What does this fold into?
Amino acid sequence: MSIISPNNNTSLIIDDFINYATSHLATIGGVINTVSLYPPLQTPGPGVIIWTGYTVTPAQAGGVVVEQVDTTEIEFTEAQQLASDSATLEGSDINEASAAGFEVPQSTESPTFEQIEFVENEFISEAESEPDPPLSEEDKPKNDIEPIPNYKTKVKVPNELVRAMRKYGIGTNNLERAHFIAQCDHESGGFIYKEELASGAAYEGRSDLGNVQSGDGKRYKGRGYIQLTGRANYRKYGPVAGADFEGNPSIVATQYFADTACMFWKSNKLAKRCTDSTTTTIKVVTKKINGGYNGLDDRIRKFTKYWTELQRDPTLWT
It folds into this structure.
């Protein structure tokens, strides 16, 4: 068990104890000496019970069981994915690209392998041609960080985001987890902003986002860690979360700011793009979310921060 300085964070102590006890209990054993009192007509005799190991079924963090959400309704078909990715290559951000994907009926015939491969190659080619920002060596991703037993990170990730990741099945491997958290961190200004600071008037009349009624621009402004924008996206994602985003859009910023980020990630199948820790991959993920490479230097720094911590302790933020 690691040594923890006095503090008021009970979860630190409890988590440390659970981890220690779980690993320790599986290794212990012993002998129990017994005296049998039965049958009563015979002389009581000694008994021996040999036991080894003991396991405890693990609970979810905080004692809360998080049930996964059925995301089938928002997971793009190959035809929808192609439409979304094509829109991205034309400069659309994830809201515009997602809306473009949802416009394609699910029954649409799948594109050919050549069509899919062409779009994928375009993503890679564009990312490779985008220059890396000037960064110090410590800000660049590395893959040779040794794990540290009983490591306690000082990097904080909001509990709401970790719960949403479990809920939607995001970050099942460390690379995806680092990419996802880094992008959410950047897009929300360090998990501070859950609602766009601008009024949203700029989105008025944006039929590509489903803003076809007067006032839709302001009503369906950007909200969430990866800002959900436009009536069409509010309408599509609300039922998956079990809420009425379209009828009550403000709840995205107060209750579902982490959920919507996960739903964007899930519907656009961004997990498949998180194949390594190279800056090329960071650029591809950034392009998909941003439609360009705005803030690339900060996104790389943030990825490096989370990827470094996850190499030190692969169990973080699960």
In short: The radius of gyration is 25 Å. Residues 55-62 have pLDDT under 50 and may be disordered. The chain has two domains: 10-58, 72-131+155-312.
